[in-house]
Amino acid sequence: MNIAIAGIVEFNPKTGGTERVSATLAENLKQHGHTVFFVAAAKAKFAGDYTPVAEQIILPCPNIHCCEENIQRFSQFITEKKISVVLNQFGNAADFSNLCCEVKKRTGTKLISAIHTDPAYEMKLYKADISPLQIQSPFIRKVKLALKNMFPFKLRRTMKQYSAMYRRLYCESDAVALLSDFYIPVFRKITAIDDTSKLVAIPNPLSFHIEKNENFPKEKQILWIGRFDSLTKRPERLVQIWSLIEKNNPDWKLLFLGDGDCKPDVENLVKRLQLKNVTFEGFADPVSQYKKSAIICMTSTFEGMPMVLLEAMQFGAVPVAFDSFESIHDIIEDGKNGYLIKPFDLKQYAACLEMLMNDSEKRHSISRNAANSLTDIFDAEMITKKWITLFENILL
């Protein structure tokens, strides 16, 4: 079977979770005897050197995805490589999904559209608190948020737009893949569809193979990894949390890995708060930090199926995250293999971190549970077989 995995940016596994998941899936599909290609709309803005795990083309027009030039090049590639199935990894992006749907119409190839995020992410963004990186004054932030909630005209318009977009995606795709069973009722509520026969839930696979009961010596280090943006990932929340606990825990340090537009602003916030034990390392291979970090923190407003948590937990890092998206309950069982914090209670988050930092026995117990809790759901081989079954079913 010849399969094209398509996305908005090149499939560099160092730049993001969707790209890393796609690379892992491609490698596993190839091991099962299938041929895989990557089709990307643009080069990544923040990326280092890498070797793609499959042949990859970059479409000619990076800014307007569904244009005639891209449709022709994508369709030509489908024909040249005799591709049977296109897996659109950005089903939540209207312009790119329209491109994939047009290519399907011209070539007759089958199309699976995957939504690698929370289907209700735009609604959650609208309701979330406003970043101090955007507005420094706490009073003005509260007033602006209150006004949005009092007059939710934009939210209603957004919900209407996404309902139409997802309904079209569902109608024109041969299947729509969500990351969790928890997202199926979310998708149904947004779209108001009755027939869910084309919906399937397939989680992200684990990225690494680690021997059972393998131990990794931990340092007193808390880790955050991700794209620096002040809308979704919200690294500044962890800086605010850290400011509440750093003084009482001088032997602990906080490390940020990643890059993005708001990174300079986050670094400036660290300076304004006069924090000392905070380090920024930009893009780097995270494995060495997974191995030695005792705690992995996530401060996002929402996620789809966060690979950072899964990967860090494989290496025994204790996960702490906001209970702000449905699929987090596939990953963390609160108090057993990690901790869930009420959105977006920074004081509760700080108290949880300080408890873990000061209770090594509890930290080690949760660490063991974290490392041993993932294989039943996120095993890469099992998930690859689910994808192959889906491909085969839509080709019948």
Tags for this model:
single chain, 396 residues, alpha/beta, Rossmann fold, 2 domains, seven-stranded parallel beta sheet, six-stranded parallel beta sheet, 44% helix
Which runs of at least 5 residues are low in confidence (pLDDT < 50)? Answer: none
Give helix % range. Answer: 40-55%
Largest sheet: 7 strands, parallel
CATH class of the largest domain: Alpha Beta
Under CATH, the topology of the largest domain can be stated as: Rossmann fold
How far apart are the first and last residues' alpha carbons, in Å? 13 Å
Number of helix segments? Answer: 16
Strand order of the largest sheet: 3-2-1-4-5-6-7
- Global mean pLDDT: 93
Tell me what portion of residues adopts beta-strand conformation: 15-25%
Give the SSE order as H and E letters. EHEEHEHEHHHEHEEHEHEHEHEHEHHHH
